Structure formats: C-alpha cells, structure tokens
Amino acid sequence: MTTPSFGPRGWTPERIDSLRGRTFLITGASSGTGREAARILLSKGGAVVMLNRSVDKSKAVLAQMREEFGADAPVRFVPMDLASLDSVRRAGSEVLDTVPRIDALICNAAIAQVATQQRTVDGFESQFGVNHLGHFLLCGLLFERVAASSGRIVVVGSGAYKMGLKRIKFEDLDFDEGYSAWDAYAQSKLAQMMFGYELQRRVAAAGRDVQVHVCHPGAARTNLLQDTASTFNKLLWSVLSRFIAQTAERGAWPEVMCATEEGLQPARLYGPTKRAETVGPVGECDLDPVALDAEAAARLWTISEQKTSHSWNP
Fold it and tell me: Would you say residue 64 lies in a domain?
C-alpha cells in the first residue's frame, strides 16, 4: 500500500475535519513545533494535554491559548521532566487518572546538541535519556489507554538519524569514551525512530488497534538549541535559520498529519520533501534502512526496558 497523494502542496492542516471529542497528548508543547501542533489541534476542536517540564512556560502558553481560543478551550498541562524517570512515572499516573481517552500521543519533546556530556537524573547521557528513554517509558505506561481509544503514537524523529555514527553505540551508549554532541544527538534520534518502527512491528504481530507513525520536522525556526548547544552552534544556527529554515508552524505539520491523517502506512517516514527534506511540501520521505534494522531495534528495546525498569509489549 502507498501513502495517499497530497498533491504538489503536500499535506496541510486544511485536510483535517473536526476533532471534537478527540484528545491529544503532546510532550514539549511549551514552545516550538510542539506548541504549534497544540494550536493546530485546538483550532480544529481537539482537546490537548501538554506534558511539559517548565511550569512557568506552561502557564504562559495556557494563558496565550485561552486568549486565542477562548477561556474554556480544552487545553491543560501535566508537569513532566523526561530527564527523570520518576517524573515520567508521576505524569503517566496523573494522565491515567484524569484523561479517559488518548487519540494520539505525540512524542515531540527533545534536546539537541548538548555541548558537553550531561547526564539525566538517572545517570544516562542526556540526549539518549530525554529523547529516547523518557519517551519509551511514557509510551509503555500509556499504551493500554491509547489502545483502548484505538489511538495513535507519533514519534518525532530527525534527519540526524542517518548522520553521525549511523548506529546505536551499544558498547558505550553514554559516550563515556569520547563524547560528541552531534553523534550523541544523532544516536538518540535514531533510537527514537528504531523504537517507533519496532513498536509498529510488535503492534502488528499482536493485532492491536493502534497506529504508530514516525515523522520529522525538517529545519524549523525553534529554540531547540537555546539551552543546550555551544555558543558557536547557537550563533551559527541563528544566522543560517533565517535562510534555510521554515516556521515552527510548518515544522509541526508532519506530527499533526501523523496524529490525524487516514491511510498512512508503516515503515514510512513523513516530513518535508524538498531541499534535502528540510523544508517544503509535507509527504513521504526517503527512509534509510538503518532505521528499520529489526535486530538492533529488538536489542534496543530490551536494553530500554532494563534501563527504565519497565517491561512492556503491545
């Protein structure tokens, strides 16, 4: 089966019908593409639960969204820090207690280009811990609620997955032997995407009524590097992004598409399709086979269960 054709303009939010009665969870929705995804979903009548680290930023975003969509707009915030597995567990528990259905869980939050080796609360290299392990645990905690809703899980990857080492460094996941900000970031995004495709395979094998899709935002003007990258990389991106990047709203389109569009297929990557897949019409992108390595993905799943102390299967 093939992905639906969206024409020369690619997929746009104009394709979305009413989302009333549907609930969307988004990690990292206090800024950037996550915030823009929340705005789009709210504009179509969906309910949004933001899972964010910063309480102050979340309160500010809630105020902005209620000003834009009305005081009774169906949007709220659950505190969650992906760098702390205990925080993820608390957030998962709160969601299960207060959110009766999950039509899509969008794993959007990320950190990137961390200049020097940093560790999460639990001792993992920060990008691997936040981008992959935190989301792995969250998906495991919420999977049955997603399944009960015949919902979706959306993994937001990055074109970086096919750069850097282009593999999972199983022998040194934390880069204790020669840290590289770029290689560690690329590994974390490859791990996320491998997880997404492995979850697709396991869902299909188990016959569960859950869709799993993997996408990437392309190059978008966000503050992703603001708190983590080196001064040089931040300055470089601030200049380059004016010429080569799209808006954060356009960067959000792939994840919104994966959360709402019918007919999307497994073992596909969705995102911008022009200029080395950094900008342009949203559709199906080229997918490097490294992300579909089932043996490596199964090994990664087992290791992720061990590191999060949470074993799960669809």
Answer: yes
d(CA 173, CA 128): 8
AA letter at 181: A
Q: Give the range of the structural domain holding residue 141, as residue numbers without chain letter.
A: 19-308
Length in residues, the chain: 314
Burial of residue 163, with CB atoms counted within 10 A of its CB: 0-12 exposed, 13-18 middle, 19 or more buried:
middle
Is 80 in contact with 91 (CB distance < 8 Å)? yes
In a domain, 279, yes or no: yes
The number of angstroms, rounded, from the C-alpha of 295 to the middle of its chain's C-alpha atoms is 23
Which contacts (CB < 8 Å, 24+ apart) does range 34-38 have?
34/106, 34/108, 34/109, 34/252, 35/61, 35/248, 36/247, 36/248, 36/249, 36/251, 36/252, 37/106, 37/108, 37/252, 37/255, 37/256, 37/259, 38/65, 38/75
Contact 293, 194 (CB under 8 A): yes
Scan for tokens 């959360």, then name that residue. 259
Distance CA(254)–CA(97), nearest Å, equals 29
pLDDT tens readout for residues 150-194: 999 999 999 999 998 999 999 999 999 999 999 999 999 999 999
Q: Kindly give the residue spans of alpha helices, DSSP state H, lying in 207-269.
A: 231-244, 248-260
- The per-residue pLDDT for range 107-131, each reduced to its tens digit, is 999 999 899 999 999 999 999 999 9
Number of folded domains that form the chain: 1
Q: At 228, which CATH number? A: 3.40.50.720
Mean model confidence pLDDT for the chain: 93
Q: Which residues pair with 212 in a beta bridge?
A: 153
Residues acting as catalytic residues: 185
* Within-domain flag for 7: no
Predicted structure pTM score: 0.93
**Would you say residue 29 lies in a domain?**
yes
